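Sequence in, structure out.
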Amino acid sequence: MARKPFNMPPKAFGPAEGDPNADVTVLTADDAPAPRQGTPPAITRRLEGDGVNLIFLTFTPGQMLRSHTTAHPITVQALKGSLVLTTDDGDIVMEPGTVVHLRAMVVHEVSAPDDAEDTNVLLLSMLTGERHSEPTAE
C-alpha cells in the first residue's frame, strides 16, 4: 500500500437510509447499491443505528477502495463474490461469510480481483458507539 492513507469518518458515506428508531432492521446483499464504473466502488450507508453504521459497498472486477483508515473499529463481511482486504499484515481473501475485525486507524484497502464476479458485495459495520435513536416513552 504505497499511497498515504486517508481517514474515512462515518459521514463520508452519506446520509443513512434506514430508520434508527426501528426495533428491527433486516438487510441483505440485495440492499447493496448497484455496481458503478470507475473508482471507488458503489457505496451506500443503509443504517446509522445505535452503536453502528451499516454500509454496503458493491465492487466490480478490478475496483478498489484505496488505502485508508477509519475513525472507529470496524468489521467487514463479504456477502457476495470475492474480495481482497489488504493490511500491513498482508492480504485476506474474503469469500461470502468471511468476517474481519479491524481496530480504529488500521490502514487497509479493499479490492475485487480482476477475475471476480460482476458484483461483489461487502458489508462494513462501523462500530461508532454513538446513539442515534430517540428515547422511548415509558
